[in-house]
Amino acid sequence: MTALDQLLDNNLEYKISYIVDLQEEYKDAKPQKFAGGKWSPRARQLYETLDTEQQKIVDEKQAHLYEGVSVDRWGDSIEVSEELDCPRCGYKMVEKEGKYGLFYSCSQFPGCWGTLPHPDNPEPDFKDKPLPIHKENMLLTKYVAYTLKRNYKRVKGGTPAEHELWFGEDGPYKLRTRGSKHHLYLGDKCSFDYRIDWRGEKMLNRKTLQAWDKKGKEIPKGERRGTWS
User: At 165, is the pLDDT very low, low, confident or very high (cuts 50, 70, 90)?
Assistant: First the structure.
């Protein structure tokens, strides 16, 4: 047993304050998870060693952390619905607007994909996908693969990503893939299908992508830096 464990066992007041401090740090470090109802793992572990009356004291002391709690993500303030729990994982829901209007999404997305209908949009008008548009003999002039996330941490190989491709002045086309490895070289000639998604972005269908190098030799899928399949 460490000295900290002994102190926590022998001093109830310090133990309660320590749990609240852990929760405050967790709120700052992971606001989306905190707002959705998740706890700091260590705080939860210590909280469960308390009896009912002691837990009530902790709840009262940390109540201020939940006042007006919201998730500030990429410049947008997302309010958490205290009344709605995710039907899949039980954590709180947040209001979002998608291509079919308003809906409730799990606050733990993308870890959980639970959704609920919104009272202002109870029956979304699902539309048929637009027909794909075919492009032939497009010369690649610019390829952008993001190697850093918004927090400036390096993108891992398996992380979902969207690369951007330009063919002269035509672009950007978005290529959904994983990691930051390039799929094509500048000067490659490409044929592919694409659609305009709900955001107005040109989404390239990777399965239809064919490419030829500068010498006119077809590039087999998976032979370049990265795989298309």
Answer: very high
98: confidence class by pLDDT, cuts 50, 70, 90: confident
For 184-200, write each residue's pLDDT tens digit.
888 899 999 999 887 78
What tokens does 194 get? Answer: 């694409």
Whole-prediction pTM: 0.44
| In the chain, domain spans | 3-66, 70-117, 133-212
